[in-house]
Amino acid sequence: MTTSPEATDSALFAALPEVDADAERRLHARLAGSAAEAGLLDVAYRTVDSPLGPLLLAATGEGLVRVAYAREDHDRVLAQLARQISPRVLRAPARLDVAAREIEEYFAGRRVGFDLALDLRLSAGFRRTVLVHLTDIAYGTTTSYAAVAAAAGNPRAVRAAGTACATNPLPVVVPCHRVVRSDGTLGQYAGGTDAKRSLLSLEALRADHAETGVPGSATRPEPA
Question: Which CATH class is domain 5-107?
């Protein structure tokens, strides 16, 4: 009886020891650290769990550059980062430990803002100006797209302000969820309207804590 090459290969691989998950993580961490030291890591990323589903976090040497909901397709987002920033994109969770911790604290109601360096290179022009002003919107409050357009220096650009919020590359951290339509309806949001409603509800419940020392005053990014 002749044994097929496929069967032989399967038997060989079955005889190999299973890879220890902890050892694999340690190896990956060492590789990520070596890549960073050698200047071969331009974009680090990791995922974190949240009440709104898994969030992708990505950072450059300048700061947090992307937060993405699962509905945005994390693989597609990583491919975009490789095109828009650098193909040297690597999973390096330790590089994003602080961001992950602050996001966890936010969802737990223990943080009202973020003390993180931000890299806004994925937005430009008026859109970037809008993002800079979004960090001025206080936790637990909302404002209108018209008010944001005015604050950004162009009161007539209400639609453009809405587009800037809808395409915000840093949702949750840069609080575009606090911007609603003048009639009170929610408007578009990268995570979907249910996610936007959930964030506003969370902040409404915790708003009193913002006045009693809950950590986190959002770091205001500088305009280009």
Answer: alpha beta
